[in-house]
Design goal:
The protein is an alpha/beta fold. The protein has 5 helices and 11 strands, in the order βαββββαβαβαββββα. The chain has a single domain, classed as Rossmann fold (3-Layer(aba) Sandwich), CATH 3.40.50.300.
């Protein structure tokens, strides 16, 4: 029976690396996969899923107008699993489309994304994945100040930033995974 999975974490937890590893495992067992990533993330080039450790792979690009169910049903006869990186950028409608891929095409869908933005606000895609996924898993990373990271703190030259646009694509140079206690402390200290 096919399932919809949501694997979430803060920045720096290895989401893309886990996606690439899991897709490789499917293919190693002669399973057909399709990879998607958000058109917003072009840090490593368009249509690329890349890990910070240097592993990358081509993928299809989605934006808010992409009908994922239609794409998969028309272009991937015999697909065993759909992988989606940057799933926080999915729309409510697209998450429902993923349930159709699972329920109507009997194809697993494994999504990877952030639960919340740098202000501690949830992303639309993450809200509906938390609601509709059959299985939810947190990929953990550590915070240098607390035991576990649960927040994404935006930084500019190492200084915490608590205002600005919701979406700003960046990596270790722009975000730091931190625990909630440390996040609140820094927000208070910087009057964020």
């Amino acid at each position: 029976m096919a399932k919809l999975y949501f694997r979430y974490s803060t920045m720096g937890a290895g989401k893309s690396l886990d996606l690439l590893k899991t897709a490789y495992n499917y293919e190693e067992r002669e399973r057909n996969v399709i990879l998607f990533t958000s058109c917003l993330d072009d840090r490593y080039g368009k249509n690329k899923i890349a890990s910070r450790i240097g592993i990358s792979r081509d993928a299809y690009c989605f934006d808010e107008s992409t009908n994922l169910f239609q794409f998969v049903s028309e272009n991937s006869f015999g697909c065993d699993c759909v992988f989606i990186d940057e799933s926080q950028f999915l729309t409510k409608s697209q998450v429902w489309q993923l349930t159709d891929i699972v329920d109507e095409l009997n194809c697993d869908v494994i999504t990877y994304g952030l639960r919340s933005d740098f202000k501690g606000e949830p992303f639309e895609g993450s809200i509906y994945l938390m609601t509709l996924a059959d299985e939810i898993e947190e990929l953990r990373t550590v915070c240098r100040y607390d035991d576990k990271s649960s927040m994404n703190m935006r930084t500019n030259n190492g200084v915490p930033v608590f205002d600005g646009n919701k979406v700003m694509i960046g990596g270790n140079d722009s975000y730091e995974p931190v625990g909630r206690k440390y996040y609140k402390k820094m927000k208070k200290e910087t009057n964020g």
